[in-house]
Amino acid sequence: MSTQAAIELIGLNKWYGAFQVLKDINLRVREGERIVVCGPSGSGKSTMIRCINQLEHHQEGDVLIHGEAFGQGPARDDAIRREIGMVFQQFNLFPHLTVLENCTFALIWVKHMPKAEAEALAMSLLERVRIPEQALKYPLQLSGGQQQRVAIARALCMSPKVMLFDEPTSALDPEMISEVLDVMIELAESGMTMIVVTHEMGFARRVADRVIFMDQGEIVEEAPPAEFFTAPRYDRTQLFLSQIL
Ligand code: ADP
Ligand code: MG
């Protein structure tokens, strides 16, 4: 047997009513592997990564995190979910909490960590994303790029084993994209297992072990970036790349 995957999707099928949004998705992500997911709007990218932490539920197939399947009851599912950090396009910070409180909230209320310890950990992660000086501000006092770095720090506070990113730079002004990508590159180089939905192809070239192209609910093609960008095998991939590159 091969070594255990960090994330494994096996025969995943999902419908919204009569509409099949995911079609027989099979994906195995090794520990430390970096996957970039791209594809046209509506192809099911967000739905797929939301199934990985079960923010969305599927009807057929299995989702395994470090070999353990979701669906063993709420307490166990919550424990599995805590191993997975997620960063969204729209940051999803709590507007009425400071940056520091955004980062310590789950540590204190979910992990029952003493406040001083939670604050020290949060500050170390705000340093890692290079905004410790913003700790006492509120999210809306920050730029979009800074807010997204807070969201990354907040996710990292929970010591996740894998990180999911859903178009983390799509809502940012162009001049703020690189400050977020730089933090993500640093995270990738530290060995974090990551699945990143993005159309930032420079990022994909630099950090992805594999690029996955989705269309109409299917994984159409997957390849290392060098191969994916220079010699895509399928017409649908070529058409997509011609539109974004
Ligand atoms: P992507 O992230 O690739 O743009 P999504 O996963 O968001 O794609 O959506 C895939 C398809 O599923 C789209 O056609 C979208 O309209 C549909 N969809 C997404 N969420 C829902 C929902 N909650 N109910 C019904 N249809 C949905
Ligand atoms: Mg999406």
UniProtKB/TrEMBL annotation:
Domain ABC transporter: residue ranges: 7-241
Family membership: Belongs to the ABC transporter superfamily.
Keywords recorded for this protein, A-Z: ATP-binding, Nucleotide-binding, Transport
Keyword ATP-binding: yes
Taxonomic path: Bacteria, Pseudomonadati, Pseudomonadota, Alphaproteobacteria, Acetobacterales
Annotated protein name in UniProt: Amino acid ABC transporter ATP-binding protein (PAAT family)
Stored SMART domains: AAA
PROSITE patterns registered for this protein in UniProt: ABC_TRANSPORTER_1, ABC_TRANSPORTER_2
Pfam families: ABC_tran (PF00005)
GO molecular function, one term: ATP hydrolysis activity
